[in-house]
C-alpha cells in the first residue's frame, strides 16, 4: 500500500494512479547527442544523461542497449533505456556561467540528481503497446525562443517551487506553471516537465527528424481517451520527464541582472525556456515494460526487478569529452551564443511575449517535420548545419548565422 501522501501526489500529478514512476540518477553529463548528432564528439551542447551505461557517441539502430549495458541508473534494473535533456546554467550579473545541478524529486530521495521518469497507462483502463527494441524519439525544438503555441511547446512546462516542494500542486502545466523560465527566485528550485507523443505508426522505429513516426491523439488528449490518428494507430504509454533543478543557491537578487530579468539559460543558449527538449532511446529488457503496463503498475511494481537508490547511483560513465562543463566560465561549452533576450534587457532577459498558459497535463496533436529546403526559416529557427535538410534562408530581416558545425540559426 502506498503512503497516503505519495498516493495523493501520484493522483494529483496527472489525475490517475496507474503510472509507473521512478528515478534515474545521473549517468554522465557531457556534450554528446547520439540521436541528433551521432558520431559527433563533442556535439553541440551539454546534456545530462540517465539510464543504461551503454550510452555512447554513436548509437545506431544496431546498438542493443540491453545487451551492451552492465548497469542502469534507474530504479527498475531491467530498464537500460537512455533519457537526456539539455543542462541549465546560471548567468550572473558579471556574465560568468555556472552549471545548475539536479536534485532528487519528492519521495525519491537518495537519487543522485538525474530525473524522474513516468510511463502512464490510459486513463480509461484500455491497454497500450510498449515501445519496440530500437525505438527512439525526441520532443521539443531547441531553436524556438518565443511562444508560438506549437504542439511541442504545449508539452513543456516550468514550475517555481516554494520551499520543500511547496506552492503549486496541480498537474504539470496547470495553475501558475509557465512555458518559459520562471521570472522570480524559486525558494524550492525549478521543476521542468516534458511529455512525449503517445501514438506510433507501428512501422518505423525512428525517422530522420525523430518525430514523424509518432503523433498525438486527435480531437482531444491522452487523458481524455482521444483516439490515435489513422496514420499512427498504435497507442503508446505516455512517457514524460520531470527534472528538478537546484536553483536555490542562485536566488540572491544581487547576483541577478540589474534589470531584474531572469538569469537562467539552457546549454544551447536559450534564455527563454521555450526551446526545452528531450531525447529518448528505448532499452527495457524483454517484455518488462509491457508487463508493467499490463499490470497498471505504480511506484511499487512487483512485476519488475528493483534496485536501491545507492545501487543506481553507482552506475556511472567517465566523461567522453575533455572539457569543463561546470564552470564558472565566460561562455557556454561549445561557445553556444546566448539568444532570446528581449530588446534592452540585461543578462538573461525575460521571455517575450511574456507568460502564457502551460500545457494541459497530456499531449495534443503532434508536431510536423521540418519544412522543405525551399521554405524560409523564421527568427530563432535552424537554417543550416551538418546533415540539415530544412530551410537555409531566413525571413527578413533575419539572416542565417553559423553557430557551430552542427547548426546555423536565423538571428
Automatic annotation (TrEMBL):
Residues 352-373 have a biased composition (Pro residues). One of its GO terms (cellular component) is extracellular region. SMART domains: fCBD. GO terms for biological process: carbohydrate metabolic process. Keywords: Signal. InterPro entries: CBD, CBD_sf, DUF1996. Residues 326-384 are annotated as: Disordered. Residues 1-18 form the signal peptide. Residues 375-411 form the CBM1 domain. GO terms for molecular function: cellulose binding. PANTHER family: DOMAIN PROTEIN, PUTATIVE (AFU_ORTHOLOGUE AFUA_6G11970)-RELATED, PTHR43662. This is CBM1 domain-containing protein. It comes from Sodiomyces alkalinus (strain CBS 110278 / VKM F-3762 / F11). The lineage of its organism: Eukaryota, Fungi, Dikarya, Ascomycota, Pezizomycotina.
